[in-house]
């Protein structure tokens, strides 16, 4: 039996785009968990002052009299996170065009569940915080952290059916879309019309690139960068530019995939017609054939698919961990932690993310199935939907992001919100995982 080196095995392994997506989300969840722990340690040790000082350090860009000056924390939340939102935009587009959301019969259950999972938490939060300074944070418990939720489900392996994983992915994608709309519509500062109009012109240029069949990434990157800047100056949160830019990236191949098989066969036959030199490996003609084959493969791929695959790991290993490091570090006074947890903001988030998500996701799914509007994912049970509803209560990344926007000038409320988010996410994640592992059974 022939033995293969690890890289040879990896070369032979074939993964679908969906499997790449799951792998990236699982990686994100693991790294995110580690960086959250690191941030909490740094914020509660003698290094706390240095930790805070680093993220408040200003970084300036000057061109003549023009200046753009923000703290490291601000550059991460408004700059790097725009790339995270760009990935979200690509994921939404993929799901709508070719994924679970492309078939309305399959998509109706996660769509309805996601809507329920956004409305119920917001209503519960508003009921608890009505008349208080924390009322503006109603969008915080609406969000589901797709990386953490999917990581928990993937760790269960074959204990959950594949259809349940795709249900959660589709639900989280719809949830992300809802969060983006909430940020754009309700957590926007005073709008400056000229920069907003210039951002709109930038988007039209991106769309025209698409319509004229431009598949090179560089023109989209340059114009997208300008659109991000104009959005930043307009008062609309700059990360929205990432989602909008993703919508303009081409999702159709440069050439018809039908012709690829014949062309590839011709090129591979030519490649095989040359003898392989045992000493030097491929000759120059074979190298040229491989380059031509690579160009053909690139032409039948789409820019959106290439970008999504290329950016997933950098976002998972750099951007999201930096966001967690910059935002999850809260100095915890254990003597007053009990008082913080019972504040309206923390309680609203905890009950919203835990009870609200279960009522919204599981309750609406149960009702839709009973009314025969939708059907259960293949080989899954309502018990498993109940567990997934708890995983939907992991709000982490997007919830913290919304909290910073909702209470932008109120550090005390941001602290209460983060305590609520961490508490709810930890409980919801552990309960959902153990429920699916030990209680819920597949068909």
Shape: globular
Please state roughly what percent of the residues sit in beta strands, choosing from under 5%, 5-15%, 15-25%, 25-35%, 35-45% or over 45%: under 5%
Number of strands: 2
Largest sheet: 2 strands, antiparallel
Structural class: mainly alpha
CATH class category name of the largest domain = Mainly Alpha
- Mean model confidence by pLDDT: 86
Helix residue percentage: over 70%
| CATH architectural type of the largest domain | Up-down Bundle
Strand order in the largest sheet: 1-2
Radius of gyration: 24 Å
The ordered H/E elements are HHHEEHHHHHHHHHHHHHHH
- Our count of helices gives 18
User: What's the domain count?
Assistant: 2
Terminal Cα separation, in Å? 38 Å
Q: Which homologous superfamily in CATH is the superfamily of the largest domain?
A: Na+/H+ antiporter like domain
Oligomer: single chain
What report would you give on this structure?
It is a single chain. This protein is mainly α. The chain has two domains: 316 residues, Na+/H+ antiporter like fold; 41 residues. It is built from 18 helices and two strands. It has a two-stranded antiparallel sheet. 42% of the residues are buried.
Layout: helices, strands, pairs:
Elements (H helix, E strand, L loop, with lengths): L5 H7 L4 H27 L4 H8 L2 E6 L2 E6 H26 L6 H26 L16 H10 L6 H25 L6 H19 L5 H18 L5 H9 L11 H14 L10 H17 L2 H25 L9 H5 L2 H27 L11 H10 L4 H11 L4 H29 L4
Antiparallel strand pairs: 1-2
Keywords:
two-stranded antiparallel sheet; mainly alpha; 443 residues; 71% helix; Na+/H+ antiporter like fold; single chain
